[in-house]
Records
---
Amino acid sequence: MIFADLIYEKIEKSGNPTALGLDPRVEYIPDSIREKAGNDADSVLLFNERLIDILSDIIPVVKFQSAYYELLGPAGIAVLQKSMAYAKGRGMVVILDAKRNDIGSTAAAYAGAYLSDGHFAADALTVNAYLGSDGVRPFIDACKCYGKGIFILVKTSNPSSHEIQDLKLSDGMTVFEKMAEMVNGWGDGLVGSHGYNSVGAVAGATYPDELKRLRNAMPASFLLVPGYGTQGGGAADVANGFDENGNGAVVNSSRGIMCAWESDRLKGIFSHERFAEAARDEAIHMKNALSAAIGKENIKGE
Amino acid sequence: MIFADLIYEKIEKSGNPTALGLDPRVEYIPDSIREKAGNDADSVLLFNERLIDILSDIIPVVKFQSAYYELLGPAGIAVLQKSMAYAKGRGMVVILDAKRNDIGSTAAAYAGAYLSDGHFAADALTVNAYLGSDGVRPFIDACKCYGKGIFILVKTSNPSSHEIQDLKLSDGMTVFEKMAEMVNGWGDGLVGSHGYNSVGAVAGATYPDELKRLRNAMPASFLLVPGYGTQGGGAADVANGFDENGNGAVVNSSRGIMCAWESDRLKGIFSHERFAEAARDEAIHMKNALSAAIGKENIKGE
């Protein structure tokens, strides 16, 4: 099955277009786990497993942020690998958010590392395409070879994303609109049975107007939408990333779920030790908010 | 000592503005090393050590391409770490070419991974700034804190780099010229005693006219120039990256040195097993070609 169909169908089956963002910082992890593990890397592994165990029946997608694992050195990379395999074993779609970018054989090495059936075997990888097509082709080749996907950075969720991405070109378009046009072309030949292809785009929830324009400009690209919750994007904002049937996007929440126990809504209800239960409560809350915003049915809370 | 001074002085002392690119593919490594090592990751470590041993007295800078190590999984990352430490122990300036990019705390995690005194402790890291200033600030903060440097991708050496980087803006500038302008600003507060600062730029040798313009547009930025040799840039081309005194740039050669034994010039003279001697011959040849092109004295061959 190609990636475009995999993510579409997993989301459809669960009724939940949420990606669990696993960007674990050691301070997010409660004492009991840190004591049991004895070191930072193993703490992260246990923390991830707890979250995956309690969420994999209701959240279909997980996004690992590579930076936090790289920060822990080779042991952190081993934990990334194990966590990815664990999530896959629980039936989750695994996105590695590593924003890799290079050219020719070097891009092919990154694609081999993350999209082949090798050491990491993600279902999809985020890619920065500032280098142009020959920095993207090796990733597309890997998508074709292994049935995998990529998400190209188009419009990111951060305050200064305008500095390069919103620059106005001589033809009236912006840089990010030109990037969206290129993303459209890159998806040819990777179209799945639901009309979406395996070359998706990253489009931030914090710019809802741009998100709407990007949804229309890339009608066959799955959108990976960061910036929900802690970065300020709400359910109504991210709704702009979905098509008229409420499909075609996945919304990431990282700290919002991992640290739900200390959110305004749940503070005082769950202790740090009960972070996993709080995460499940928040995941259901988020799912219902998204469902309402995109016009789909709610699931019951527990 | 801040990075801007470190690289300037190491290059001045050696009289050689070359960076040894260690982008090792397993097929570059001769049988004897592969047999001795017994596995891919350890083969790469022995191969790197041989090259560093034979070149560190004449090449002042080494650039590791992260992709080839990531391709080998956690063991490859451990070899990257060991190779970086080995090169540092031999007195080389260590650049990690990983083109990292993200925002806020995630960018800070990458900066912590590679620019702190932690697991990898590179002297400098390549960074892709498509995300804008708040994707770069955490790296700059790390440069200030640890005396390290970054090289921002401005104009890359690949054929399709024009697709985004050369887009014409409504004010007549190109995207890469706007990026160069931003790089200029990011270097404030990191200026060393030779007039250069620790926020450098990647500017490809394959576009010599652009390289000249970028040298002038970023007068205080050290340039990291890829594309020499196998990608088609010659010594006259890369000369455009240097200032009027022949300073301010470092030229990378990866396959050209690692695989010198099979180059047109050296084929039949060195066997694959003698790759390290061929690499030294090529390094001296390249140094002399660069010296001639930028008007500095040659060193003697051996």
---
Amino acid sequence: MSETQMPTARTRLVREADRAVYDREAVYRILDEGFLCHAGFVVDGQPFVIPTSYGRRDASLYIHGSAASRMLRQMQMPMNDGAPVCITVTLLDGLVLARSVFNHSMNYRSVVILGKATLVDDREEKLAALRILSEHILPGRWDDSRQPNERELKATSVLRVPIEEFSAKVRVGPPIDDEEDYAFPTWAGVVPLEMVAGKPIDDARLLPGQSVREYARDYTRKRQSK
Amino acid sequence: MSETQMPTARTRLVREADRAVYDREAVYRILDEGFLCHAGFVVDGQPFVIPTSYGRRDASLYIHGSAASRMLRQMQMPMNDGAPVCITVTLLDGLVLARSVFNHSMNYRSVVILGKATLVDDREEKLAALRILSEHILPGRWDDSRQPNERELKATSVLRVPIEEFSAKVRVGPPIDDEEDYAFPTWAGVVPLEMVAGKPIDDARLLPGQSVREYARDYTRKRQSK
């Protein structure tokens, strides 16, 4: 089941419209492979862009942080029922080497979400959102960890951003050169790029008998395609 | 030679001040290992965050794109000698698994630059900036490519963002748990993450005898430390 979102004037791609993706399931696949977003907000006309992790369930994206953080305080400004934010997720897949300098490019998948963030302040909802965040980043880890206590819950702010106004942009495949450039004598092609996990590093203070869990040993962001 | 930048009220880290880096050479090392930034700008009060590649030379960061792109048009609004922008570069180094959910974290290095972008419109300066961009992403590639012609130069906008008001944030090392949590029976440690290049993929229309260049075969972002 797939729903195609009509772009708004703010999310319609002006350039390279052939790279545009407005399909909700395709956007979810990108969001579910990533876990780091760049969150944009505005203070006194100045934009700020801050990297932070996120989780997704259904049409909700959650971010969290210290209740004292500038980003989270700005994003939930109560006086105007949520400040406008932009959440961008980018997966980089490769360098695209064309014959001409001009046609060099990158293969990537990115999602831009515009919206207003709202504070998740109900205790149970906040706990559920933190679990979604944790499971999004590292499935299985939540149950293996010491659960949040009341002090920690209070010290943490969770914001929800609705996945309503969004667009995605995807480039795949080989370089596309101008026809006459195919005669230019150079190498052309793609250098694939991928985020990979290395061998887990044991903490120095592990209790005896605690060995690395499977979810940490075989960590990958690749998801089964449906 | 290293210069320490005094943070401004806008770049001073409010939280986790122990992770703050204001040293210019350390910031350059992060900027030189990365090549993808997230650029923030504001349109009618709405922040936009767009991924784009960049290059650096000295205290200048360059981004480029189609002269028709929304981002580049917005960022160089001539009526107010440059719109405020934010350029953020994030290198993700690992997942940090603590005993408590609360102390989970990530290892990363990020730089935030605030400033105003100015259009590079002198022809020679624009060409030099495009070369800086190209060499930043893939050293050696420029000379192996068909050079930009006048039409392509006109179709490309290059913006310069001064690296003047900036901060960086770095987290390295193992999880830090609350003292009483070290008795909690679970695995803890770090899952290292790294962006790695795969085997280059030949374009289907390569001329006979064109084999992959060394810079594409041995691609890495790791730089020699000085």
